[in-house]
Fold this sequence. Notes:
Elements: H1 3-18, E1 34-37, E2 42-49, E3 52-61, E4 65-67, E5 77-83, E6 98-99, E7 103-111, E8 117-118, H2 137-147, H3 171-179, H4 199-210, H5 231-239, H6 259-269, H7 295-302, E9 305-306, H8 307-310
Helix pairs in contact: 2-3, 4-5, 6-7
Amino acid sequence: MTKTSRQMFASLIIVCLLFGFFSGTAAAETPPANLLLLGTGSYTVSFLVDGKEYSKLENIKGGEAIVFPAPPQKDGYSFEGWYTGTEGSGVKVSEGAIVGGNTTLYAYFTGVSSNATHTAYMVGTDGKFRPDSEMSRAEAAAVFSRLTDGFSESMTYVSSFSDVSSGKWYSNYVGFASSKNLVEGDGTGKFYPDRKITRGEFAVMTAKFLHIAPTAFNPSPFTDTSGHFAYGYINALAEEGILSGYDDKTFRPNAYISRAEAVTIINAALDRSPDSGKITSTSPFSDVSSSHWAYYEILEAAVTHKQSEFH
């Protein structure tokens, strides 16, 4: 078995585990998405909206790809996708996910309000943001902790990593992120908080934050991700429109991610892409001028504002 085959086989196991082996799914974007069924039997796939049946597909054969229904509409709300659990719990399905049996998917909506507050989730130091500096693993843990429900700056979260001692600025963030399975160590009990995080590692963390399962069986839009441990996660995020690569069609998964690149991905994950035509705020950082390619993305991430002011 080749390295790529082993990676794809491992991804299959991961996906099956995520869906309890007997439930799984595929993407729910504006265009209908395909769902892949495995096995030899006949299955039923049910789509529920607010507890009521929205669509139902019966007698679907194993190995058959089916088409998702059109995304449901709900006044005052935004459809966020189909999930394996209610209220956005479980796993959000992406195109290429796998079903091994009868499956129920639940629509998840979020309220739309122009008065919603977007709280800053990134900070600078000494009046600088350092947009082109590489992000550390500790910084990534801090960002995703701040964005995850249940985290409190006033609480103490302990990690089991031998190189994350209490009292460090990042110890609470790493402890919380670890408890939510957003971060992992190296298998020997170490986290390496000061080590720079790669684009591939950041993709895995982003997908876990969003509860998006890997889709390792779809062709990659990038030329350099085949066989990479983050292949399925990169694919899933690309399919959701959350990340993109470079002009040469590479993603560079082993390259370190910059702080500017990181906030661009996170903003897309949060559906918080800024509208430059509406923003009147100026940069609070001496090293982020309006000519920087990620100027508005950085303002979105580092300046608390009302949604109507930036979108």
